[in-house]
Amino acid sequence: MDTGLNRENILIEALPYIKRFHGSTIVIKFGGHIVIDEESIKNIIKDIILLKYVGMKPVIVHGGGPEITRVMNEMGIKPKSVDGLRITDEKTIEIARMVLIGNINTKIVSKIEKEGVKSIGLSGKDGKLFTARKKGKKKVEIEGEEKKIDLGYVGEIENVDPELIEIMTERSYIPVISPIAIGQTGISLNVNADSVAGRLAHELNARKLIMATNVDGVLKDPSDKSTLISELSIKESKSIIRDGTVEGGMIPKVKACINAVNKGVKKAHIINGEKNHSILLEIFTDEGIGTMIKKN
Ligand SMILES: Nc1ncnc2c1ncn2[C@@H]1O[C@H](COP(=O)(O)OP(=O)(O)O)[C@@H](O)[C@H]1O
Ligand SMILES: CC(=O)N[C@@H](CCC(=O)OP(=O)(O)O)C(=O)O
C-alpha cells in the first residue's frame, strides 16, 4: 500500500508533466478490444477526464474492428482483411457505419457526459472533417503467387479540416471521432482507426499520440509478453514492419505512429488500455509504459 509519502512523491513527479502538457492537444486512440470491454472503457475515460481537468485537450479516435467482425459473422458474412485492413463490400460498409457511428461512438460520448464533461461525436462526414479516396488494390501473395486484391470501400485519408475539432476543444468538449470518411461522390469509406488517429494528431499539432490497445506495446515475439520493446526510432519501426516482427492490426498502428512522428508529433505511444490507469502512468510518470516511438 502507498504511504502518505509515496502519494506525495507521485503528485510531485506528475507536476512537471502537468506544466509541460497544459494546453496541449493529446490524441488518444481506443482500440476495438478496449471499446467493448466495460471495465477498460470506464477506467480509460476517467483518465481522460483527469487530463481535461489539468488543462490538456484530449481528442479521442475509436476503433471497433472486433465488433464489426462479430456483427458480420452474425449476418453470415465472412470477414477478410489484408495487412490489418478489412475488405469492405457494400454490406460491410453499412455494418461498419452502424457499429462505429451508431453504436460505439454514441456509447463513448454518453459515458463521458455521465462524468459531467461535455463531449461530441463526429465522423469524417461531419463538416468534411476528413475526406478520403478509395485505396488502390493491395498486392498479396497467395500460395506463392502474387495477386492484386480490391479492398472495396476502404479509404485513405486525403484531406483533413481540423477546425471543427479545434472549436470543440476550445469550448471544453471532448471530441470522439469515428473512422468513417467521406469519399469524392459523398460515399462512406471505411478507414483504419489507427491511420485516422495518426493523421489527426499531425493536423491538430498534437503533443502526443497514444494508441490504447490490448497488448503491452510492440513485442519482439508477439507470443511472449516479456519481450516488450520500450523505445523505437522511426528507422527501427520501419524495419520491424519489413522483417515481419509486427503483423495484422499492429501494422497500421506502427505505420500511423511513424507518420505522426515524421510530421512533427513529438512522441507516439502504444500502450495497454486494459491495464488500470495506463494513460495516467504514461503521461505523468518518469518511466512511462508501453512502446514509445520517436524520431531518432
Ligand atoms: N509484434 C507485435 N507485438 C504486439 N502485438 C502484435 C504484434 N504483431 C501483431 N500483433 C497483434 O496486434 C494486435 C493489436 O492490433 P489490433 O487487434 O488491431 O488492436 P486494436 O483493436 O487495439 O487496434 C495484438 O493484439 C496482437 O495480436
Ligand atoms: C479499413 C479498416 O480496416 N477499418 C477498420 C475500422 C475500425 C478499426 O480500425 O478498428 P480497430 O481499432 O479495432 O482496428 C475495420 O473495419 O475494422
From TrEMBL:
The protein's annotated pathway: Amino-acid biosynthesis; L-arginine biosynthesis; N(2)-acetyl-L-ornithine from L-glutamate: step 2/4
UniProt keyword list: Amino-acid biosynthesis, Arginine biosynthesis, ATP-binding, Cytoplasm, Kinase, Nucleotide-binding, Transferase
The Aspartate/glutamate/uridylate kinase domain, residue ranges: 25-272
Domain of life of the native organism: Archaea
GO MF assignments: acetylglutamate kinase activity; ATP binding
InterPro entries linked: AceGlu_kinase-like_sf, AcgluKinase_fam, ArgB, Asp/Glu/Uridylate_kinase, Glu/AcGlu_kinase, NAGK-C
Site (Transition state stabilizer) residue list: K29, K253
GO BP of this protein: L-arginine biosynthetic process via ornithine
Chain sites annotated for binding substrate: G64, G65, R86, N190
Record localization: Cytoplasm
CDD domains: AAK_NAGK-C
Catalytic reactions of this protein: N-acetyl-L-glutamate + ATP = N-acetyl-L-glutamyl 5-phosphate + ADP
Main location: cytoplasm
GO cellular component term of the entry, any: cytoplasm
EC number: 2.7.2.8
Function according to Swiss-Prot or TrEMBL: Catalyzes the ATP-dependent phosphorylation of N-acetyl-L-glutamate.
UniProt similarity note: Belongs to the acetylglutamate kinase family. ArgB subfamily.
Protein name: Acetylglutamate kinase
Source organism (scientific name): Methanohalarchaeum thermophilum
